[in-house]
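Q: What does the predicted 3D structure of SusC/RagA family TonB-linked outer membrane protein look like?
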Amino acid sequence: MRINFTIFKSTLLVLLLLFFGQSFNTAYAQTERKISGNLLDNTNQPIIGASVAVKGTTKVTSTGAAGSFSISAKDGDKIIFSFLGYQTKELTVGSSSTYQVIITEATSSLTDVVVVGYGKSTRKALTSSISTVKGDDLNKGAISDVGQMLQGKVPGLNISRSGDPNRNAAIIMRGASTLRDGAQSPLFVIDGVVGADISILAPDDIASIDVLKDAAAASIYGNRAANGVIMVTTKKGVAGQTQIAYNGYFGIENVSNRYDMMNAEQLRAFLAKNNSALTPANDKGADTNWQNEVQRSNAMSQNHNISLSGGTEKTTYNASVNYFKQQGIIKTSGLDRFIGRIGVEQKALNDKLKLSFNLSNSVSNADLVPYRNTILSQMLTYLPTAPVKNPDGSYFDNLVQTSYYNPVSMLENAKENLKNKNILGNLSANLKLPFGFTYDVNISYQNSQNVYGAFYNSIYTSRYNNVRNTPDPPANPTFVSLVGQNGVAIRNAYQNTNKILETYLTWNKKFGDHDINAVVGYSYQQSLNNDGFQSTSTNFPVNNVGYNNLSLGNPYAVSDFRVDFNPGVAYQEILMISDFARVNYNYKNKFLIQGSIRRDGSNVFGRNEQWGYFPSVGAGWNIDQENFLKNQNVIRTLKLRGSYGIAGNSLGFAPLTTKLIYGQVGQFYYNGSPREGAYGAVQNENPDLRWEKTATTNVGVDFGLLNGRLNGSVDWYDKKTTDLIIPFDVDPTLYPSSSLTANVGKLSNRGLEFVLNGSPVITENFSWTTGINLAHNVNKVITLSDSQFNIDNRLTITPDGAGQSGASLQILAPGQAIGTFFTFKYAGKDANGVSQYYDAAGNIKTQGLLNRTDYYILGNAQPKALIGWSNNIKYKNFDLSIFLRAVLGNKIMNVTRADLFRPSTAQFTNIPVEVENESAADFNSYKYSSRFLENGSYLRLDNATLGYTFKKGLIPGVNSLRLYTTANNLFVITGYKGIDPEINQGGTAPGVDTNNFYPKTRTFLFGLNVSFN
């Protein structure tokens, strides 16, 4: 199906004519006079640069020195005072011509406006679970990803991040609700644009983030909302004098923790004690700290943001430019990014029509670490007695040992780079109609272009031509063949395009004590993904061609070389059509009822299951409105709410997923000789494949006590996912191929969330506000079978370390959580110092153990509690914020440590200092088992910021000036023995540290915030 844009082109033309044809009435009434005065805050400090406008006219000005203002108005006119971070103030002009106006800071309360799907609501009118984080409350620091900004801020949002500036954080909301990798992330909506890429926004552009956690709040987004929805609202222009602001910082980062590996002297002493010695090929008299050689001693970061905003009551605008650069702590890695944004809002037709246009563009340049996890592993295991380079300047290598590579050489002799250009434009029109109706039209266009290049020079093709690739779990290690003269190069270029049209009609009507809000709408989305190609080449004339000149190679001169056109990436066209409706009913602001439904159609699923329905219902009771709570001063707000809804998950699927596909399945023989091109079915058709469905029941209480000094909420939820999408082995005599993807299985998440915010101290010169949030979730697989397909359990994650062939780490099984560890149970050591393990019968053995047969269930990677605690202190012009975050009760399988625990091979690979008292005769020491299953709990001081705001009006033309310093990751309290306990808790292989750590850093920033009138 194709959309006909003729209607929309005509509509757009009419809107543009209205925009340019709108006239401005500037006639002055005869009775107007000059109204002047001062605008102050509640501490009698002047507000400079605030907007001052006469309501219903185009007259607007801004406050100057000492908060002074002057504007023409007449008796009865209303003058509106607005300033970012303060409540809007309205003044009615009377007989006086001079006024002193007090404006108060905005505070969080149940009257706050919350962004919901296709509209807004007050928090007091909500029946569902929604958390809000204001822009000023987001995490600060050298942050390249929005996930880091939200860490610890929202209960139920489990975010784990790498130290790599080019890796996005893993975000899981209220527990994993799918068994598919890449399908667990929440849906992002930016200023109403569904599925927008969050990388197009700089942190300084974000005004607030609303997190829709339960299905009743999220189901209005249908088959993409099972993982929750994150609504991002960007900053808008405010009427008044043009405001120019600059926010910037410079930072320095260093590694916060290292593995304590043996140096040359310690290693020689250990070997001598065990009657062993290094081979001449490995003992070159060096004492190399390979972690120091691979990592930067200091990495630099910087961020600069310039914004401009202003306008009149009819027209407002805002624009910003952001530049961010961060060096990775691993040498040669880093991120360089430029973001530009512009937004315009225009009112017309006597303010009945509002047109909005926003355009954002992000350009990033990421230097990646080639064979990242392999280099991280080699920097720990490479012997300290080996030098980085030989005396002649060439890189040292011992090529006799297999899977043994100089990590500095790997870094310096390869280059991987990813360039991304991302543009998002959206045009919206809001028209107020009679009888309480409003009509909205939103049109958006998103285009993302990715260009990747990799070049591995002759060092790789001659020395590392069978290099071990160690991907992140659950993928298993493989060996990659790199052949050809003077290196091998890879180049690809792909783009994704997304076009969205959404239109909806809203009705707001009040009948006495009855208040109704209703929305009905339509959505159309067309996505064109993976439009591009990939190619490879080798046999270059010189060793430094790189990936920019593939045509200089001669790959076909290399026997059996095949140009890689990336068959795993296929062009996709995804169409989605949706209808949706929602009704909110409010009686006396006391009793609340909400109901919604969305009908989604998509071409990615089976032809019999392309349409789905996603309903929700919710109810609330504002108990504080009852008479029995009227005459008391303890309880300010109290609300009971409950909801139930169903949302879907269609992430990670393409239109070809359900189709019968043929491909190359090997060779066929003719007259005894093999021939190329045996073709057969490689994927079965499933016309009944549909999206996964998640149903959530949520019950919550919101409260505010002691005149608003203490407020919070408690939520209980029960989230069940059905129709899990799992590949099953099938009988090839009944199906063309041996595997079929089908909807089978159920899993659940149940939990509690608690939020408490308070203001223990508020005086004229000193204030302290604090907030804590806590979340507990229990994840469990209910079943992986039905009447047709059956899986009792499935083993996952095979790190394949030396001597551990076939060993797996986790199991998917009914009654167990995702990330359940299933491995050998450690039983100490025997009299000879050899590690022992329990077999299935409970006998202690050193040999003869069988994979799986002798495995035990030994805990899981799911945390029992997530905690965030923020504190903000102000003393006169000083401000101090401290944020701590904790993860409790989870397990981590420290595969990295297990693979290092090899005293018997210390003459070939380095070992940690902690191994010095182990017996070299222990041939079992490194076996994956409960010995290396560690407690992953930690408490981290995530952020501490100290700032000083100079007195307003101190410098002419400067509205505000603040200097600050920030420290990130100051300390971590943990018993975990790896680099850092914050191991990825997303995906289907959470909590596995298998050389996939990228060292965390400790960061110190020095920044400046300044705005000009």
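A (community wiki): The structure tokens above were generated from the sequence. Residues 794-860 form one domain. The two ends are 52 Å apart (CA to CA).
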